[in-house]
Every structure is written in C-alpha cells, then in structure tokens.
Amino acid sequence: MSEKGSLICSVNVVDQEKIQKLEQILPDKEMTKKMAEIFKALADPTRLHIVQALLEEELCVCDISAVVNLSISAISHQLRLLRTMHIVKFRKQGKMVYYSLDDDHITLLVQTALEHVQEKTGESVRA
Amino acid sequence: MSEKGSLICSVNVVDQEKIQKLEQILPDKEMTKKMAEIFKALADPTRLHIVQALLEEELCVCDISAVVNLSISAISHQLRLLRTMHIVKFRKQGKMVYYSLDDDHITLLVQTALEHVQEKTGESVRA
DNA sequence: CTTTCATTTGAATACTTGTTCAAATGTAAT
DNA sequence: ATTACATTTGAACAAGTATTCAAATGAAAG
User: Fold this and answer.
1) May I ask the CATH architecture of the domain A29-120?
2) What CATH class is the domain B30-120?
3) What is the pLDDT of residue A123?
4) Which residue has the closest alpha carbon to C26 C1'?
5) DSSP code per residue over A15-61
6) Dmax (CA) of chain B
7) CDD domains, alphabetically (chains A, B) (predicted)?
8) Is strand D in 7 Å reach of the CB of A79?
9) Which of residues 23-52 of B touch strand D (CB under 7 A)?
10) For B38-63, what is the mean pLDDT?
11) pTM (2 decimals)?
12) DSSP secondary structure string, A91-113?
C-alpha cells in the first residue's frame, strides 16, 4: 500500500484497464470477508473434525468430545464459534445439548475439499 | 483430553458403539488435517481476494498488488503460501512472474462459499 | 559492469487463535 | 437444599500468522 501512486510499474500503467475491469467483476470486500470466514470455520482440524462427525448424525457435546478426543471445554469453545457462524445448531434436552449441522452448503464444501485432497494425494478417485 | 478414561459420562458409556462407528466412517486425522489446510489457504481475505482475481485471468504480482491494494511484498508472501499449497502456479517471463490457478477444485469451493454467503445475506439467488 | 526494475526473502512486530484450567450455569435427582 | 453431572464461560498462555521494512535476487537495458 506504499509503493503505489507515483511508483506504479510500467506494467500497471499499461494494464490499468485490466485492473479496473477486475475490480468490477470481483465480489466486494465485505463479501470476500464473509466468504473467508466460512473457510476459516472449516480451517481448523478440530472444527473440521466436529463438522465431519455432525455430517453423519446429531451428537451431544460429550459424544463429540469422545470422537474428536479433546476436552469438553475445548469442544464447547469451538462449538460456540461454529454456532455464531451458523454452521451448527443445537437442541437442549435435559442436561444434554445436542448439536447438528445448520447449513447444507457445508456438506458440499467438505466433500469438495475431500476430493481435492484425495486427488492430490494420488488416491484412486473412481467410485 | 483430561476428563476421559474413568470419568466418561453415562451417555458415552451407553453410546460407545456409536462413537466407534463414527471413528470408522470418518476420514483419518491426516486427511482431515490436509482438508483443513485447503480451507486455511482460502480463509484469509487477502489470499481469497487473490484467488478470486486469478479465477478470472492470469496476473503478474504487480497486477495482483493493484487489485488487492496491498504491498508487493505482502502479496509475494501470500503467493508463496498459495504456491506451497498447490493452489497457484507461476510462469516467468523476463523480469515478470505470472500467476494462475493450479487447481480446479478451488473454483468449486469459492463458488459454493459465495452462494452460501449470498443465501445467508438474504440476497436473491435466482440466475 | 552498472543501473533499473519486478519479485523474493528474512527478521521484526502486532495481532489472532486454540487449548487449558478454574470457576460458573443450569438441570435433574436424592 | 444439597449433590451430581453436562455444558458454558473467562482469563491466561503458547503458538501461529499477516503485514511491514530493509535487504537480496535475478533479469533486461544502457
């Protein structure tokens, strides 16, 4: 943000038009920020693990803690994050709290990422 | 990871079977970690912005810096990260270095995230 | 060879984030 | 009320990360 203005390189001067065209097409900064937040929610192994488990079935905090093998407290903290991101929803029943996925898009995102990694890892993709 | 073992809550004891079934179905930890890394690559506004721009066309570092409105140095650092993640590839031509997307899955991920945000923001989704 | 310019790199800094521990809710049972 | 238990919360600490600045490459041109 400093070497701009007078110090614009020749290429930028030439392609100023290209830059402006891109700025028009691209989603605005707010949109990009929100998209980044979705990715960020899935960017932590613990949270992704939680989401993967909830992809299968509804689970209580205790269950999740067992599957992910992390303290109840740590899980609860992460669940709060996923809650505020509208990725999971919850349902109280007695002392227990049951969590499930709130959003359908998440499934597609996780699936796509899985395919990507499988391909890059050289795993056979048929079936 | 501490209140486990002897202190397992009654629910877990009952559903121990459920937990084991989940552990079988779910991708192993290595896979989950790799998936999280893909998401992490897209989890930063700056990097996502770069990727969105490259979705449209091949660009040099200078161009990207102009579009994202951040110092050349900052962009170069992020590009290195995207490079090691195999998300972008580059091509040298004289003094300039041109970057483009290395992976097809990224497009789908970004599109899905965009749709998700648009829905949650209450934007009309037709067309 | 020296200068110029696009890009990269390394160190430093400020900021963010995941986990832990201890304490607080809140619900159900004795 | 008191106890037991599932979950949440807040503070604190360690680890990770994005950006900046200054310096280093490396390629083309004078």
Assistant:
1) Orthogonal Bundle (1.10)
2) mainly alpha
3) 67
4) A95
5) THHHHHHHHHHSPPHHHHHHHHHHHHHTSSHHHHHHHHHHHH--EEH
6) 68
7) HTH_ARSR
8) yes
9) 40, 43-47
10) 97
11) 0.87
12) EEETTEEEEEE--SHHHHHHHHH
